[in-house]
Design goal:
With about 425 residues, the chain is an alpha/beta fold. It is built from 13 helices and 18 strands.
Length: about 425
């Protein structure tokens, strides 16, 4: 007798007709036709069942603040930073908590149950840190929230930036962040990477840096980050987010850089929605895409995972909390439209991101935590195309969100009464 059995599921690895049995909040069996009963059974009807989506790069302190204190008229990264600099000093703990909790509600309905959020430490009041630590505790039953101490205005550039980041870590923030390309000089950027990696090594913490989020091919702090990772024995515990300057670097230099990154086991986090929106703003035509070299990094064996980064905030007026929207954009920007490419893109939203965040018990194998999502799609490729409804979101074996299937009604003589956009509207081979 199990607590829950999901029947007739498709899995991302291509298996179909699979039953998943859950007991005590854990996956007890993954087999065809499990001969047992359960307190609850769900028929997946040949739909895709996957572990939850994972967002390894987000800014929850700024989310849903679009229009505060005013709109980003130019739509640029620098105006967004200026706007956040105006909002941050007047933001209250209560307001920050309320916005973050509303975003977490949205995330749950999207099957997004693991989030790494950067928390700005540039305001020495650290109200952002206090607020996100409260949110982390409140959502713990349903969202695993990791926090990065992020010196938005620069570790050395911001007044009290060094002491504020140290205090944030002392308060319980999980991860050391940085933004070397935003320091006043390249040398200050290099020194910040060295200092922050040393702090992480001393405290036994991971590192996740905004690194080279620029079109400047001479912004090469990822090289320093990789070298410091090896120097301090941090292999596998360091993430380089954005890395958009790699889009503009010459191929010879990149041919040396990628092996160094692989030696350091750097986790790479592109943010396709934001990168394609904010980069290349100084170009006329030809206009650069501005996203890092996803295919080449994957081919070199680096762990690549995608972040949503922003939702309706000073930098990005769009966004829905849907990681499949992120993957959909990645397919286009990285020009990864092949069957195997799409499998890799889907992995970058799930298992790769779980590896970046160091999640334990993540997956659909026996013995994994019973955290699952049932999608209104048959396979990962269809999910990335349709960005379908999440029919059920399950945490520790309990359904915590449902969305009705998206069915279109038709009123046409001689045609069907309704269309399931995923199941009915596909080529018939």
């Amino acid at each position: 007798m199990f607590d829950l059995i999901i029947r007739n599921a498709n899995l991302a690895d291509g298996r179909s007709g699979i039953d998943i049995a859950i007991s005590g909040g854990m996956i007890a069996a993954v087999e065809r036709r499990i001969e047992a009963t359960a307190g609850t059974e769900i028929d997946a009807t040949g739909r895709l069942v996957t572990p939850p989506f994972v967002d390894p790069h987000f800014h929850m302190d700024a989310t849903l603040s679009l229009g505060l204190p005013r709109m980003n008229v130019s739509g640029t990264l620098l105006e967004g930073i200026t706007l956040w600099g105006e909002l941050r000093p007047v933001a209250t703990r209560e307001e920050l908590v309320e916005r973050a909790l509303r975003y977490c509600d949205l995330a749950v309905t999207q099957g997004l149950l693991f989030i790494r959020s950067h928390v700005d430490t540039s305001d020495p009041r650290l109200v952002t840190v206090e607020a996100l630590l409260e949110v982390k505790a409140r959502v713990k039953p349903y969202i695993d929230l990791q926090l990065v101490a992020f010196p938005q205005d620069g570790y050395y550039r911001a007044r009290d930036g060094v002491s504020a980041l140290t205090r944030a870590l002392d308060m319980g923030v999980d991860i050391v962040g940085g933004i070397p390309h935003f320091e006043r000089t390249m040398e200050d950027g290099r020194l910040s990477v060295e200092a922050l990696c040393r702090i992480a090594a001393e405290r036994g913490l991971p590192v996740d840096m905004h690194c080279d989020e620029t079109d400047d091919p001479m912004s090469r702090h990822i090289e320093t980050l990789a070298a410091e990772t090896v120097r301090h024995g941090l292999q596998g515990r360091v993430a380089g987010s954005h890395l958009t300057s790699m889009h503009s670097m010459d191929n010879y230099y990149v041919s040396k850089l990628i092996p160094l990154m692989a030696e350091a086991q750097i986790n790479v986090i592109p943010n396709p929605l934001i990168n394609i929106m904010l980069q290349g703003r100084h170009d006329s035509y030809p206009k650069r895409r501005g996203m890092t070299r996803v295919r080449e990094l994957m081919d070199a064996g680096l762990n690549v995972s995608f972040g949503h980064d922003c939702v309706m905030d000073p930098w990005y007026s769009m966004g829905s909390g849907d990681m499949l929207e992120v993957g959909h954009m990645a397919i286009h920007v990285a020009q990864m439209a092949g069957v195997e490419d799409k499998k890799k893109i889907f992995d970058a939203l799930t298992v790769n991101s779980a590896r970046t965040m160091g999640l334990e018990g993540y997956g659909l194998d026996k013995g994994c935590k019973a955290d699952l999502v049932i999608l209104q799609a048959a396979d990962p490729q269809e999910a990335l195309r349709l960005k379908p409804n999440r029919l059920a979101v399950i945490k520790a074996g309990q359904v915590i969100a449902r969305t009705a299937p998206r069915i279109g009604e038709l009123f046409l003589a001689g045609r069907p009464d309704a269309i399931d956009g995923g199941r009915d509207y596909v080529p018939r081979l």
